[in-house]
């Protein structure tokens, strides 16, 4: 049993090529201006063009938006044919954007306790991470983890990714503790904000599979 990996916050062609070569299932492009990983639609188009499309074995393209309007998403989709929208918004807005764009939608959820975990949904998936805190200028990409034990008995209503504070050093333990089948990382595989490290991506993917082997025998 394998754990699927998303590498988020790509800003450079060489980094998205490394993700493709190393077998990341998803690559994330951040369209939130407050993020150090924010990219323009033109940059996103260049990154998209640098690796094979999913139909030819390339990674699925995930676009990350914080409280977007329909026009925000449409503007990006005119430049890049994203496969999935990762949204930081309320569930009604997410359903509206799913219906109007025809794209798959993952809703990001900050989790403080088991009651925060969803049990039924119209979403295609969830990104489960640490809750935002007062003073944060963005709701993710902060290298902050949460209690991975909260998800180990969860009967998730849709596929989900574990995110927040994952690194090459802790991802195997995170998989084992949370029982997740997919992991999502941004700051944990960077040399500096927005600048990915190929060596860290390689180690992260390798160690996530070690966690999968120990968990799903
Ligand atoms: O990466 C960002 O800058 C970002 C900005 C706004 C919302 C989410 C963001 N990143 C996502 O946050 C999680 C965890 O990131 P990290 O590994 O702790 O740095 C992940 O889903 C990123 O896609």
From TrEMBL:
Pathway: Amino-acid biosynthesis; L-tryptophan biosynthesis; L-tryptophan from chorismate: step 3/5. Keywords: Amino-acid biosynthesis, Aromatic amino acid biosynthesis, Isomerase, Tryptophan biosynthesis. Gene3D superfamilies: Aldolase class I. The keyword Kinase does not apply. Pfam families: PRAI. CDD domains: PRAI. InterPro entries: Aldolase_TIM (IPR013785), PRAI_dom (IPR001240), RibuloseP-bd_barrel (IPR011060), TrpF_fam (IPR044643). Its EC number is 5.3.1.24. It catalyses: N-(5-phospho-beta-D-ribosyl)anthranilate = 1-(2-carboxyphenylamino)-1-deoxy-D-ribulose 5-phosphate. The keyword S-adenosyl-L-methionine does not apply. GO terms for molecular function: isomerase activity. Residues 5-207 form the N-(5'phosphoribosyl) anthranilate isomerase (PRAI) domain. Belongs to the TrpF family. PANTHER family: N-(5'-PHOSPHORIBOSYL)ANTHRANILATE ISOMERASE (PTHR42894:SF1). This is N-(5'-phosphoribosyl)anthranilate isomerase.
